[in-house]
Amino acid sequence: MSPDLEVELARLRLRNPAILASGILGSSYGLMRRVEEAGAGAITTKTITREPREGYLNPVFVDLEFGYLNAMGLPNPGITAFKMELRRAAENIRIPVIVSIGGRDESEFIEVAEQALDAGCNAIELNLSCPHVGGYGLEIGSDIRLACNIIRSIKSISSRPVFAKISVYQARPDIVSRYIGSGADGVTAINTIRAAAISVESMTPILSNIFGGLSGPCIRPIAVAAVYEIRRELPDVPIIGVGGVDGWRAALELILAGANAVGVGSAIARKDLEIFREIIEGLRGFLASRGFKSIKELVGYAQRL
Ligand SMILES: Cc1cc2nc3c(=O)[nH]c(=O)nc-3n(C[C@H](O)[C@H](O)[C@H](O)COP(=O)(O)O)c2cc1C
Fold it and tell me: Which residue minimizes the CA distance to atom 23 of ligand 1?
């Protein structure tokens, strides 16, 4: 019998642990459908805010060869327009749709979450960690009390799972414990890491926003350490490990560190949605070759020593 890739993640049942990470693809119904057809276990939408946002001027994304740097500026259609896409997704898409929510304050988070829940999302991810948009993401997440208040408020209106997406700076068991104590059902670790690049030709910063977020294989060891440490101290917390997943080996590394599921982000720029099949087939092949029956057996396996 073929090994079982199904995982449970804070009451969500995923056919496999490979999740589309937030922000990588647009969040139209058509794209979500393509991600489902490509084999993903779940979809995380772009971060959605109350009002539409245009995002920053180009350049917003650069391939540094050892990784990627982006400062998109959280472009999104705003929750009112997005609701229509989400309704269609809720009706037709069979894998869980996790809506990523951004806000400048508690009331924006609540308003967007209310609408997303009303449109039928399966779970919520709170963006407490985007490192390059003033007033959003990390600026909110750096204030742990504020983040806990937001989590508490969202939990008071949501019976569906709520994940806190954290940056490397908050990826510490004591902080994660506070988030869980405030009601978070799990954490997504990690977001991109604040970074900048300068062109020596033009002698100017490459990104229009100067600062951006670093992603790709170069941040994987940082994500692995974050996941490992959280899992070691908090054995039962559902974790979505994100950072540098560019194939099944990288996905497995995060799972062995303790992730229940993994987010796939910038690798899609290089491998397109094909990467989901590659991860699924690779994981299945590994399990079969080592005599494991289920991927669940490998969550945190590297912690046994
Ligand atoms: C182009 C781009 C846009 C992103 N947009 C978001 C976003 O809207 N919300 C969010 O929480 N994370 C966003 N991220 C972060 C990713 O979800 C992920 O945490 C990070 O890129 C690390 O994973 P990776 O190395 O697989 O890309 C974005 C990343 C990239 C590269």
Answer: 243
